[in-house]
Specification:
Structural class: alpha/beta
Shape: globular
Number of helices: 7
Mean pLDDT: 94
Helix content: 25-40%
Distance between the termini: 4 Å
Radius of gyration: 17 Å
Oligomer: single chain
Low-confidence stretches: none
Strand order of the largest sheet: 6-7-8-3-9-10
Length: 228
């Protein structure tokens, strides 16, 4: 059942709808969605393909605007912010990890991790990047480019990049979906360990019920809603 957001909750969606046009008529992707995350809470979002899980993350992170309803991210109502303001709100405080890594191909592992720190104006970005790559077991791969890394290594770089800014909120969209069993387990361990260590709230979209069971709470989606 939906839990109303408490004061200070880093994320709260209230009655959110997303309707998109199509040749066959409007398609309702999200339908009156209510969802919230408390500080430091780890929430797994599960459900069948097409249920709206990835769309929830896009809306919650301010990457896409809802048709109607309210989204509050880090205390700010996103409908009142333009695209640049939403980007500034996320900077250094909201991080995302995707299934397909999204590393910059012309940057080394160290440079990929340092980039968001530099954008956020952090001092010692290179040193922090090296420390985080060491924490995910990649201290020997600092100068390697993404094409020189395995899938598991690329995802660990992406995770180091996401957490190096010590975000308040971490979104992870199927972060183990492209990995073999051993790498998936290793990345999953790191996500939960490092999110807890940095006290980041975690919203994890996954099809893996065993992975979801490690969260504090499971939100099950169906047809654009959280099931009661």
């Amino acid at each position: 059942m939906y839990d109303a957001a408490q004061p200070g909750a880093p994320l709260a969606l209230d009655g959110v709808w997303l309707t998109l046009p199509s040749a066959a008529g409007p398609v309702e992707i999200l339908r009156g969605l209510d969802f919230s995350v408390q500080p430091g809470e780890r929430v797994a979002v599960v459900g069948p393909s097409g249920s709206g899980k990835s769309t929830l993350i896009a809306i919650a992170a301010g990457l896409e605007r809802p048709t109607r309803g309210r989204v509050r991210l880090l205390g700010q109502e996103l409908s009142r912010l333009d695209e640049d303001s939403r980007a500034r709100l996320r900077r250094g405080r909201v991080s995302l990890v995707f299934q397909s890594f999204h590393l910059l191909p012309n940057m080394t592992a160290e440079e990929n991790v340092a980039a968001p720190l530099e954008i956020a104006g952090a001092k010692g970005a290179g040193k922090t990047a090296r420390e985080w790559l060491d924490r995910v077991g990649l201290s020997a791969r600092l100068r390697h480019y993404p094409h020189q890394l395995s899938g598991g290594e690329q995802q660990r770089v992406a995770l180091a990049r996401a957490l190096a800014t010590s975000p308040t909120l971490l979104f992870a969209d199927e972060p183990t979906g492209n990995l073999d069993h051993d790498n998936a387990r290793h990345v999953a361990d790191l996500i939960f360990e490092l999110a807890a260590e940095t006290r980041a709230a975690l919203v994890l979209v996954t099809h893996d019920e065993a992975l979801a069971a490690r969260a504090d709470r499971i939100a099950r989606m169906a047809a654009g809603r959280i099931e009661a």
